[in-house]
Design goal:
It is found in: Cytoplasm, Cytosol. By secondary structure, the protein is an alpha+beta fold. It folds into three domains: 110 residues; 100 residues, no CATH class; 291 residues, YVTN repeat-like/Quinoprotein amine dehydrogenase (Methylamine Dehydrogenase, Chain H). It is built from seven helices and 28 strands. It has a four-stranded antiparallel β-sheet, with no helix packed on it. A four-stranded antiparallel β-sheet has the order 2-3-4-5, with no helix packed on it. A hairpin with a 4-residue loop joins strand 3 and strand 4. The longest helix is centred in the first third of the chain and has 145 residues. It is elongated. It starts with a helix and ends with a strand.
Length: 621
Amino acid sequence: MAGSCGIGGPAALWKRHIVRQLRQRDRTQKALFLELVPAYNRLLEKAELLAQFSEKVQPEPNDATLATHQGSWEKESGPDSDQVPSPATLRVKWQEEKEGLQLVCGQMAYQVVEKSAALGTLESELEERQSRLAALEARVAQLQEARAQQTRQVDSRRARNAAQRAAYEALRARARLQEAALRKLEEEARDLLERLVQRKARAAAERNLRLERRERAKQARVSQELKKAAKRTVSISESPDTLGDGIKEGVEMTLALPAEPEFLESEAGEKWKRPFRSASATSLTLSRCVDVVKSLLDFKKRRGHSVGGVPEQRYQSIPVCVAARLPTSAQDVLDAHFSEVNAVRFGPNSSLLATGGADRLIHLWNVVGGRLEANHTLEGAGGSITSVDFDPSGSQILAATYNQAAQLWKVGEAQSKETLSGHTDKVTAAKFKLTRHQAVTGSRDRTVKEWDLCRASCSRTINVLSYCNDVVCGDHIIISGHNDQMIRFWDSRVPRCIQVIPVQGRVTSLSLSHDQLHLLSCSRDDTLKVIDLRVNNIRQVFSADGFKCGSDWTKAVFSPDRSYALAGSWDGALYIWDVNTGKLERSLRGPHCAAVNAVAWCYSGSHVASVDQARKIVLWR
């Protein structure tokens, strides 16, 4: 009702306004005829009076009599007479007045016609305006109905918005509660992790202490056995060579350190059960033997890095081909991923290939007879894959992701084994070290981290002044390439940078030769550089017409025998340079129609793999 009243009020106002305008027009037009109508009425009255008077004063039919009477009347009414004028005079006057009245009537009739025409025009305009007014009233009614409908829609939407706002507030309250619970769980997880780390540290310390005690006990048993052996005699018929062999066997026995004391006693008694020729020779030989054993034990303790002297575990060396084969043609072309492919890597046995892409998947491929056969897919990455790497044993795969972490998989298992989290930005590179259970990652958060894979924890963080785009690892050296056109060298045993080599252009990738004497870098100045690590300077610079580095993560590699350098260009071509001569050896074109992101050369030297931004992987031979 309130809405209808509000709508009817303005409608009544403009209707009254139109009625007032029409009345004003009627009054204005009526005022034009107010003087004319009375004059016209008076003229009509005079005309009637004159008609009556003329009928009364008409003459007799006899003209003579009329003339006589007229003459006599004229005589009687002379010029000086005071009587009524003659009928002729009156007739003339009446005729004049009649003609004047007719003229006036004609004028009045003409004006009446004009006014009637004007009135008809005004009436047509009035009808037209009334029709327009009716159409406008219908339009107003339609608009009022639409307005009422929209008002109802607005009211319903307001009610729905109010309900959604209430639901949103409830969801926010739930989210706050869940965030609080999550923070509490994270704190508990951190506490548990710290307790676990402390417990592992205590267990490691206890284990190292037990090992140290065991070593000391073994050393003590060896010393006792040596002392017992020193008291025995050696036959003088024994030659010095025989005596030396006995000492050598004793040293070997000591280094073997058997766990059972009975076995040690029997071996020592059997080896040293000989009489000596003199006491001086016996004491000299035994003292020398004890010194050798002690020095060997001390060397073994120095080689270890743990508290108890456990030696550093290293991977076995990867067999490398003597001469790599130059690829000539594409053997197989596949759409490897659902989106851009960023990384490719051969396994140590050269028959397994891994690719990683922006679809957060790692696909493993078997290289069989020059063809790629799908093995299985590794899932669980939290972001786009930027690099992949096999450990030297080929049993594990490490991948860097855009999810601020690196993922560790075991070959043959689809789900991720460990997550190395701790970076605050995209992880651009992740590589295994030559020592077991250790890895290195580089990130855009300007840090390089060393990881203990047994505990999945960071053992060292190196802060750098620029983004890290790639890392490689030697025996004790970590080499990182950065966005500020610098290559930095880090020693795992020294907490600072030991060498910096500037290059032209942002560094996109690094590749270390198998002998760890040469380093290949690719940079955005469209060149590849070979760095001699023995003198730490740039030995060669490779470039070619048409070769352009397609992105900040374009990868270039050495051939396994370090005879060639391989890189992909922005136009899909592969370029191969001879490291010994510095000349462009070959360029391969064909399957790739987009920029090549990464290339890989298998350890046997027989195959090359390349991936691009158009989802393709190409196997070359």
